[in-house]
Specification:
With 719 residues, the chain is α+β, with helices and mostly antiparallel strands. It contains 16 helices and 32 strands. The strands form twelve sheets. Strands 13-14-16-17-20 form a five-stranded mixed sheet, with no helix packed on it. Strands 29-30-32-31 form a four-stranded mixed sheet.
């Protein structure tokens, strides 16, 4: 049954079919339901939909017969239809209709005709083309079934998808066992304090009991691989933040380790511009009764360590997630898609058919998708553009995803704007509510569209977002450095203010308070970063709070409602815990696809500076660099592009128009530096530059470059 928010009557409607004349009980004509316009329809295993062309001689109100699969059913031509037009009928799947008429005649194969060759014969005044059967010879008699001109052939549009074969061994659920571990409480650990250790091959977080002391034995239980192999460790960022298992409730939690491997807790401490990190967190809002989203210290954030389907059945456990996190990207993506297949509702348990009008695509699609329950989002979808003959065998689905994402991401629609730092990236428009009253509904639809695209292995090439948006989707720590990707001027001002303080100066000299000035739709507005912010002067003592307040506002609070809507829509389809296997660079590649990189164009529009300025492309290290990049597979080339420009997107006009943070053309640049200046290649994404050390061998260059581009997860540089 259709679920719509407003009634639309643009589609052709058929009258109820007339019963077949005096059929037997076994041949009773099934009831036929006709589709009625844009919307979404739940199709169970008991229904099949056929697309039928009305025979040319049929007039409105007349009946004609349809071959629907193996059955012959009777349909009355709708009043507003004519012969030659196409309509759709929905037939109960289990009903036995009339058997096709036994309209056979015998014909003789003419001389000179070979098996498989067609020939024409005239039967009852009609010219009929017959293909000679493989076993027939000239002079042989073959039986031919004549098609009644008043019987139409129905084409099923509710065909189940072909079963996907698992890509390799990825996606198989690990066999686990619950094992008891006994450990000593480390020195310096107080009762109630957490400490990290390795158990069963994975780093876990243990809470010291209130009755225990350092040196005392404690026990805890943990799920490990049935084989007992130490094969798992969770993703770790270059800045020290890593996910670990919390044994008290088997949830994944972020921790930060120092060089000695001890946990460093930043909750409640003074803001540290290099080490403090925050993760978005959903909390109930007692005033509205709905969810709210806030930033909390990364070491207080946690998420589930397993994935369950809509019935509550576990699809993969913590061991599976930990093992998948350490796979190469291609195998990791394969594991993810195989897991989504397990989460998908079986075809026979019901599937969805989405009907949209091409000239009202976005509105129809949003109303249809937002009317679905979460379990229906994981069903198989079939698409139809109303009044168009195409049958969805995959092509219509790709078109539907692409067209909707293009319209949603178009800055003219008002939901997103281009980043001021990188014109290839989109960021949420803080003023979207002034441009579209239903903006939050469309943001949630955008989240569902992104989640369903990943779930169905579709690509959304236009959804290159700023970095912190992908981090919010993953629940990854965000830091002050992420501000450089959305507003380099503000970021540099904060860094310079901190340096001013570190040089022994008083930041009160700047005469600042806890407010910022923003322009909204041409009007300048004062935004308070804390209660009564205009009354709070900036001092050396509260500089950390000032920097933290700026970060919180610009990376979440200014677009809090929009961000929450996208995330809730995304998690309606994809479980949050399933996304823990990716880093933010991998999510962009998974969602947008691998870019098509023209290496000749890239090299042609590269500039050289620093140690390379004199020799340019003739320098040995430059030759080694391009030889190394040429040897990279598509994924590594995309990661290098992300490392150097901040996104995997390539301008449509090529590298010649690559833009910097100021909106001007900033060509890709290789800047030569000495080993003393930096040991590893260092990226400056704001102006598309890599600082490349002068290595002595191509092997050393390849090793250091690979490490930099594959480790560039949560850190910004490697000084």
């Amino acid at each position: 049954m259709f679920r719509q928010r407003r009634k639309k009557n643009s589609n052709k409607e058929a009258e109820p079919p007339a019963p077949a004349p005096a059929p037997s009980a076994a041949q009773a004509s099934p009831e036929i339901a006709m589709n009625k316009g844009p919307g979404v329809q739940s199709m169970g295993a008991d229904k099949i939909t056929f697309r039928v062309q009305i025979p040319p001689a049929i007039r409105p109100g007349e009946e004609f017969q349809v071959n629907a699969g193996t059955r012959l059913v009777r349909v009355r031509c709708p009043a507003n239809c004519r012969g030659g037009q196409t309509i759709q009928i929905t037939v109960p799947a289990g009903t036995q209709g009339q058997e096709p008429a036994d309209n056979f005649v015998n014909v003789t194969v003419p001389p000179g005709i070979r098996p498989g060759q067609p020939f024409n014969v005239r039967i009852h005044g009609r010219e009929v083309t017959v293909t000679c059967p493989p076993t027939a010879r000239p002079g042989s008699s073959v039986r031919v079934q004549l098609q009644d001109p008043r019987v139409a052939n129905g084409s099923s549009i509710d065909r189940p998808p072909p079963k996907r074969k698992p890509l390799g061994e990825e996606g198989k659920k690990s066999s686990t066992k619950l094992q008891t571990f006994e450990v000593l409480v480390p020195r310096g650990v107080k009762p109630g304090q957490s400490f990290a250790l390795m158990a069963g091959g994975q780093r876990v977080l243990v809470n010291c009991p209130l009755t225990a002391q350092p040196g005392q034995k404690i026990r805890f239980k943990l799920h490990i691989s049935q084989a007992g192999q130490a094969s798992t460790r969770f993703l770790k960022g270059r800045d020290g933040w890593t996910r670990t298992m919390r044994v008290t409730d088997q949830r994944l939690q972020w921790i930060r380790l120092d060089e000695a491997g001890k946990i460093v807790n930043y909750s409640g401490n003074t803001f540290d511009m290099e080490k403090s990190a925050y993760v978005r967190h959903f909390v109930p809002n007692p005033e509205t009764g709905e969810s709210d989203i806030v930033l909390i210290s990364a070491d207080r954030s946690s998420c589930a360590s397993n994935v369950v389907d809509h019935t509550g059945k576990e699809v993969c456990n913590s061991v599976d997630l930990a093992e998948a996190q350490n796979l190469p990207f291609e195998k990791k993506a394969s594991w993810f898609h195989n897991t989504c297949t397990k989460l998908c509702v079986e075809w026979n348990a019901g599937h969805m058919r989405v009907n949209v009008r091409r000239d009202h695509l976005l509105e129809d699609s949003m109303l249809a998708v937002m009317s679905l329950r979460p379990e229906e989002l994981r069903k198989i979808w079939r698409f139809e553009f109303i009044d168009e003959p195409g049958v969805d065998a995959g092509g219509l689905a790709r078109e539907w995803f692409q067209l909707n994402s293009e319209q949603l991401c178009n800055p003219d629609f008002g939901l997103f704007t281009y980043s001021a730092v990188n014109q290839m990236c989109l960021q949420i428009n803080p003023s979207s509510g002034l441009l579209n009253e239903e903006h939050l509904e469309y943001y949630r639809f955008m989240g569902r569209l992104m989640g369903k695209a990943l779930f169905d292995r579709q690509l959304l090439p236009t959804t290159h977002f700023v970095r912190h948006m992908y981090k919010h989707i993953l629940g990854w720590p965000i830091t002050l450095a992420d501000m450089e990707f959305i507003d380099q001027e503000v970021y540099n001002s904060l860094v310079q203010t901190k340096e001013y303080q570190q040089n022994g100066c008083d930041v009160e000299d700047y005469c600042l308070d806890f407010t910022i000035m923003e322009e909204v739709m041409g009007e300048r507005k004062v935004i308070e970063l804390c209660p009564n912010g205009a009354e709070v002067d900036l001092t050396n003592e509260n500089l950390g709070e000032f920097m933290e307040a700026n970060m919180r506002y610009r990376l979440l609070d200014v677009t809090k409602e929009q961000t929450m809507s996208i995330l809730l829509g995304f998690y309606d389809v994809i479980p949050e815990s399933l996304m823990t296997i990716f880093d933010f660079n991998e999510v962009e590649l998974l969602l947008c696809g691998q870019p098509k990189i023209d290496m000749e164009d890239w090299q042609k529009h590269t500039e050289y500076s620093g140690e390379f300025e004199m020799c340019q492309e003739n320098h040995d290290v430059i030759a080694w660099f391009w030889a190394t990049v040429e040897s990279f597979d598509t994924n590594l080339k995309a990661r290098l592009l992300q490392f150097s420009t901040g996104t995997s997107g390539v301008p449509s006009q090529g590298f010649a128009v690559l833009q910097g943070n100021d909106g001007n053309v900033r060509k890709f640049t290789l800047h030569g530096v000495t080993i003393d200046q930096c040991l590893y290649p260092r990226a400056h994404t704001c102006f598309n530059r890599i600082d490349l050390p002068i290595y002595e061998t191509i092997e050393e260059l390849e090793e250091k470059l690979r490490f930099s581009i594959t480790s560039e997860s949560t850190g910004f540089d490697m000084e």
